Amino acid sequence: MTSIELAADVVQWCRRLAACSETPGETRRPFLSPPMREVHEALAGWMRRLGMDVRIDAAGNLRGVYAAAGSAPGAAAGRRLFIGSHLDTVPNAGAFDGVLGVVLGIALVEHLRGRRLPFAIEVVGFSDEEGVRFGVPFIGSRALTGLLDDAVLACRDLGGRTVEDAIRDFGLDPARIPDAAAPDGSLGYLEFHIEQGPILENLNLPLAVVDAVAGQTRADVWFTGQAGHAGTTPMTLRRDGLAGAAVWIAEVEREAIHTSGLVATVGRVAVEPGAANVIPGRCELSLDVRHAADDVRTDAVGRLRRAAEDIASRRGLAAAWQPRLEQPSVRLDAELSSLLARALETAGFRAHRMTSGAGHDAMIVAGRMPAGMVFLRCAGGISHHPAESVREDDVAAALEAGLGFLNALERSHG
Ligand SMILES: [Zn+2]
C-alpha cells in the first residue's frame, strides 16, 4: 500500500472507532467504559495481523509489541520505541483526538511491510488522558511512567466507583499496575496528535514538531465592592465589582497580546447578586495563563496580580487572589525533536516548530524517557467537537515522516 492508501485507511479506522461510544449518535468514551473494549478488540485484531504481541495492561492501556529483528515475539526487555496516544474521549468528541495517534502508530508498523528494526516498536493506546470520568487526567500514561499512585486509584467517578474499582470491573488486576511501567532503557516515545488549534492551517503546513508543552497558571480572582440600587446610587459613589473586573479583563488581554507566545484567558465570570437593577457588589473570575517559558509566564502573572490590586484600590474595591494550578512547562527531547524535524524535511515538508498550549500524554511520558511529538493540521483548528477533521494527504505526510524517523533511528541504533 502507498502512504496515501494507508492514510485513507487510517482516517476510515478513526471514523469507524468513533462509533464505539457510551452515547448512541455521538462519541463519548471515558476511561474503561464498555465501548473501550470494542476499540481494544478492533485494534488488537489489526495489530495481531501485523505480527504484534498484544495485551491490555492493568491500567487498561492497549499495548502491542512489534518485536525487534532477531528476537522471538514476546521476548521481554531490549530496546524499545513507544508510539502512542490516548483512546478515551471527551463527551460529544470528534473522531481524531488521541485515536489518530494510536491508529497512526499501527499504520506505521504496517508501512514497514514486515521489515524488522534493531529495536522493538510498542504501540500504546492510553486508557485515559482527558480525565473525564474521574476528574484526574493521564491515568494511562501515568501507569506507563510508573506514577499511577494510590491517591489516583482512590479517586471516585459520579457513580461512586474508584479508579481501582473501574479497573476490576473491566476484568483487570490493580495489583499488576507496576507491570504497566515501561522497562528501563526504553529508546523513547513518539506521539502523533491533531494540533487542536489553527496555527498549521494558517501556515498552510500539514505537520509540525512540538518543542515543548506550555506551562500553565490558573487562579481565581475576586473584585469586591458594594451592591446598591441601580437607580439611586450616583456613578461617583459606586463601588462596582463587575466594572473593576471588566477593566482588569481588558488588561489580561493587553498583557497577552504584548507578550510574545503568551496566551491568557478569563473563561468564567460570576456576578453577585446578578440582577439587572442592582450594582454588582462582587465579581469572581477565573484566569488561565500559558507559555513555553516558565519565567515569562510567572512574570506576566505577577503583573496581572498587581494590576488587579491597582484597579481595585483606584475604585475602592478589594481584590483577592486564589492560586489554583501552577504547572511548569515540559521540554520535549531535543535529539528526538531534531530527528523528527529532519524526517519532515526529508519527506518534503517544512519542519515548523511549535509549543503545545494543551497538555498531552507526551508531557507525562517525558518524565520517564525521551519524548517527541508531531502535530497534524486539523480543519478549522476545531477539536473536542464532532466536526474534528484531518486531511488524508496530511496523514500520508505523517506516515512518510514517521517512516523516515524510524529509518533514521535505525541508522543511529543499528
Ligand atoms: Zn488528545
Provide an overview of this structure.
The chain is α+β, with helices and mostly antiparallel strands. It has two domains: 3-213 and 329-413, Aminopeptidase; 215-327, Alpha-Beta Plaits, CATH 3.30.70. The chain has twelve helices and 16 strands. The chain has helices spanning 3-17, 34-49, 99-111, 139-144, 150-153, 163-169, 199-203, 241-257, 294-314, 334-346, 361-365, 392-413; strands spanning 53-56, 62-66, 80-86, 120-126, 188-194, 207-213, 215-224, 228-229, 263-265, 269-272, 278-279, 282-291, 318-327, 330-331, 352-356, 371-376. The longest helix is centred in the C-terminal third of the chain and has 22 residues, at 392-413. It is elongated, with a radius of gyration of 24 Å. The two termini are 26 Å apart. The protein binds zinc ion (ZN).
In a nutshell, what does this entry contain?
The chain has 414 residues and is α+β, with helices and mostly antiparallel strands.
How big a fraction of the residues is strand? 15-25%
- The name CATH uses for the topology of the largest domain is Aminopeptidase
In terms of structural class, how would the helical and strand content be classed?
A: alpha+beta
By CATH, the superfamily of the largest domain comes out as Zn peptidases
* Count of the separate structural domains: 2
Q: Summarize the amount of helix as a percent range.
A: 25-40%
- The H-and-E topology, N to C, reads as HHEEEHEHHHEHEEEHEEEEHEEHEHEH
Mean pLDDT: 96
The total count of strands amounts to 16
